[in-house]
Each structure stands twice: as structure tokens, then as C-alpha cells.
Amino acid sequence: MLNLTGIKNIIFDLGGVILNIDYNKTANAFKRIGVANFDDIYSQANQDQVFDKLEIGELTSVEFREYIKEIVPSLSYRDIDKAWNAMLLDLPALRIELLKKLKKNYRLFLLSNTNEIHIKAFQKIIQSSYGENIFDVIFENQYYSSEMGMRKPNSDCFQFVLEKNSLDSF
User: What is the CATH number of the domain that holds 102?
Assistant: First the structure.
């Protein structure tokens, strides 16, 4: 087992660390349903302000969907959610087993830039894979940018988690 001398707490990211994701799947899904300029408004490296606002909870899921419907009015909310969630893949059992082992020796926390639509979708992935929200068992606390009103990599986001859990920073 991994021995992290002097480390007592670990803060994990979700997407691309615990949950497999593929941004291209979302881009391709939106293009297939008629949002031809999706690459211009969203990418992993750069995104339109609407996506940032969604991630920090300044924009509701309904407002996000309506924004997309302005581009392609014929889309349903279901179409939009399906395309938006296409990037969310699987939650490998090996990662869950590693987290369970780490939990025996460390306080574990989850901190993710995510939004209400994705939270509901990945919770369904977790539920269907593990029969329960295994994150509630593994992580002492879970923090999502859309619920916190702040996002990584901004230091206030990390500081919030540190203070809420009485964690020391370096």
C-alpha cells in the first residue's frame, strides 16, 4: 500500500481522476444534434462564459438549456442533457477499491468543477455501478463548484475546503 509519510488528508478531483471522461464525446454529441459551432463555445481549455457560470451555480440548468436552445431551438431539454452528459463515462472498480484502501489511513475529500446536470448524471452512474452512492461512504465531504459558487484553480475554492474541514495547508 502507498505510504504518504506526513500526509493525513487527500483532496481528489472527480473528472479524469476518479470518473473517466471524454470532452470530445460531448462536442461530437452536440454537433450531431445541430450545434455546429460547439467547439467555438466550449472546450476543455477554453469555454464560453455560460459554461463557467453553470459550473459556479450562477446559471441554472434551465438557463443553460435555454442558452443551447437559442442556438438550436428544436432541441429538447433531454437532447441537451444527453449531449452534455456524453463526456461522463465510467467509474472503474479499481479506483473505488484504491479509494477504500486509502480511506483506512487518510481523510478523503472530493473537490470537483461540475454542475447540477452532471452531478445528477454521475450519481446515476455510481448508483447503477455500486447500488449506493459509494462517494458518501468513501469521502468525508464532497464539494462541487456549482454548489460552492467557486471553482478550481482559484485558491478561494481550495481555501474553502481547508477551512471547512480544519485542514492545514502547506
Answer: 3.40.50.1000
